[in-house]
Amino acid sequence: MGKKHLITCSVIFVLVIISRLNIFSTTAANPAKQVRYVAPELVNTQPLVEPVVENHPDFNFANEAVPTDIAKVDTKLKKSLKKHRYKNLQTNILHIKADKMFPVIEPILKEYGIPEDFKYVPLVESGLREGTSPKGARGAWQFMPGTARSYGLKVGHGVDERLNLRKSTIAACKYIKDLYNEFNSWTLAAAAYNNGSVKLERAINKQNEDNYFRMTLNHETGSYIYKLIAMKAIIKHPKKYGYKNYYSYLHKTPEWPLLAFNN
């Protein structure tokens, strides 16, 4: 009996050990109960997908929201932002021009009650080029001769006030204000600045639509507001769009021709 009792006790003891081992192995196999340490420097903090553009504070024009929930609008905005990255432009000229022009333009816009976002219009209008356009537009605001004269600028007989940044900005403010009074929308006013009020009015009547982002317009005007928004984004957040060393250029170009506009 003693021998059998000893064997029985031994078996019970072994079973107890096995059962406890099973408990520990089950606990270890349960991911919910594991605590795993990962060194912070090994954690991938980069997003797995490209961030969406919705709700970005800069994706509006003159506080008029861009409806990025519309697929066409979202696509056009992303395309415009991509085109204006340093990787594609390979130049700091836009930031240099902004640095020279904005101190002159901003107070004039404010004086005339024009939203500050219109300061990006000259960067889109004149862009990377200088001089006269093939159609005859000239200066930072790219005024045609007739429009310039109708808003008080002298053009002709050896004088061209379209090249005077202060005077041409005043003329542009008067023109933009007239366009806003006509269309009751800063977005449409900007579109009309690019395409002309007559053509835009015709498109609105034909399409029975006065929301710029829902309208079908010619390529230049149809992409115009997106260019303004992209310009605003790269000027306000240069590093985000690849412009890393542009400040060093600002102090190396004292002879930049835009200084002549201040006269």
From TrEMBL:
Transmembrane segments: none annotated. It comes from the Bacteria. Residues 114-211 form the Transglycosylase SLT domain. InterPro entries: Lysozyme-like_dom_sf, Transglycosylase_SLT_dom_1. Gene3D superfamilies: 1.10.530.10. Belongs to the transglycosylase Slt family. This is Lytic transglycosylase domain-containing protein. It comes from Mucilaginibacter segetis.
